[in-house]
Design goal:
single chain; mainly alpha; 0% strand; globular
Length: 127
């Protein structure tokens, strides 16, 4: 999970630069990792071979085929290990834990919020 943790540390630095205070960085990281495990369990029973026959969602986090390019673009834009991101398969069934985690977080951190629910653009306030 090295790239996933590196991504979280990069996001912590970015949030702090924007004026957010994160007093306990390790607790923040642990909370996000715990949240990711819950999502994986809900979405795929933590089984990377799962494919939803109705939606086509695949892998740990049930990425739909047309969301993968968006997640990869967000990961490239938001993560420092461009070579790592460039080598992530377009098929979520081929992602290891670290690739899946990074893609999930990049997609979540980079997603615009629904303006009907929040005036904030981006999902930083959710994380």
């Amino acid at each position: 999970m090295k790239q996933t943790i590196d991504f979280l540390n990069t996001q912590i630095a970015r949030l702090e630069k924007k004026g957010y205070e994160i007093a306990d960085k390790q607790a923040y990281i642990d909370n996000i990792l715990d949240y990711m495990e819950v999502v994986r369990e809900i979405e795929s029973s933590n089984d990377n071979t799962q494919v939803n026959t109705d939606s086509g969602g695949a892998g740990f986090y049930q990425f739909i085929e047309n969301t993968v390019p968006t997640a990869k673009n967000r990961a490239k834009r938001m993560h420092t290990a461009e070579d790592f991101v460039a080598n992530i398969s377009d098929n979520p069934l081929e992602w290891d834990d670290d690739e899946a985690g990074l893609m999930f977080l990049a997609h979540a951190f980079g997603a615009p919020l629904n303006e009907n629910r929040s005036p904030v653009i981006g999902s930083d306030e959710l994380f």
